[in-house]
Design brief:
Structural class: alpha+beta
Strand order of the largest sheet: 4-5-1-11
Largest sheet: 4 strands, mixed
Oligomer: single chain
Radius of gyration: 18 Å
Order of helices and strands: EHHEEEEEHHHEEEEEH
Length: 240
């Protein structure tokens, strides 16, 4: 992550990726809507409630920078398949949080999806891969020397693409294929999409780092091309 403060402007073709790690002292319920607070309070565990409030607070503060309004003034709308957006704005965004990590992607007039996953200590990842992924993806994960890494690369890449197209799991995890291997920075991990409504060559899907010392997390982004550059920002560097 770039820790030098600078003016952050969003241009067409840019993808901005923001990262924040949970800090109980930094959450602020004051900027959230009554609906957001109610949804957080429905979570059973108090810590999950706090992390949900923290994630939504981070999202509002990040978006307020691009929208030039205060965080509490932002009004969200919900798309046909449940993806939130800001009404009458060309700023598009996506939020994911897992464990202590919050990841946000922001673009201008380009569909964007992000996913971050904290590695589960007792997860039967091969069973999950066999059940939900394509046969080719499962075979690649099973034969990999680092099968856990391959699984999480596959999982986060697929989730990011599903979130980018706004359809979620209703689209089907096996309805498209991604590479499970490490790839070059300029390459896309999206190999093919069985639904003819989506052209795999029109999308960038990549794994991203959530920062040094965060080896228990895997993350990915998906954005509609053209993508000129991906920028990475640490939330607390710019909003403290």
């Amino acid at each position: 992550m770039d820790n030098h403060k600078q003016i952050i402007s969003l241009c067409a073709g840019d993808v901005h990726v923001w990262r924040a790690f949970f800090c109980a002292e930094k959450k602020s319920e004051a900027v959230l809507s009554a609906e957001e607070l109610a949804l957080a309070k429905r979570l059973v565990r108090p810590m999950d409630q706090e992390k949900s409030i923290f994630a939504r607070t981070v999202l509002r503060r990040v978006l307020s920078h691009y929208l030039s309004i205060s965080p509490e003034q932002i009004e969200f709308a919900i798309g046909e398949h449940g993806k939130p957006f800001v009404q009458d704005s060309d700023v598009q965004f996506n939020l994911s949080h897992s464990g202590d990590c919050v990841l946000i992607g922001v673009t201008q007039n380009q569909p964007i999806g992000v996913d971050v996953e904290c590695v589960g200590p007792k997860q039967d990842y091969l069973a999950l891969a066999k059940r939900f992924f394509s046969k080719a993806e499962f075979a690649a994960i099973q034969s990999s020397e680092k099968s856990v890494e391959a699984f999480y690369r596959c999982w986060t890449r697929k989730e990011a693409f599903l979130k980018a197209i706004g359809l979620g799991l209703s689209f089907g995890l096996s309805n498209f294929e991604v590479s499970v291997s490490e790839i070059a920075a300029q390459e896309s991990a999206l190999l093919n999409v069985h639904d003819k409504a989506y052209d795999a060559s029109a999308w960038l899907v990549q794994s991203v780092s959530v920062g040094e010392g965060a080896s228990s997390y895997y993350a990915a982004i998906a954005a509609h091309l053209p993508v000129h550059k991906v920028f990475y920002y640490d939330f607390f560097t710019y909003f403290c």
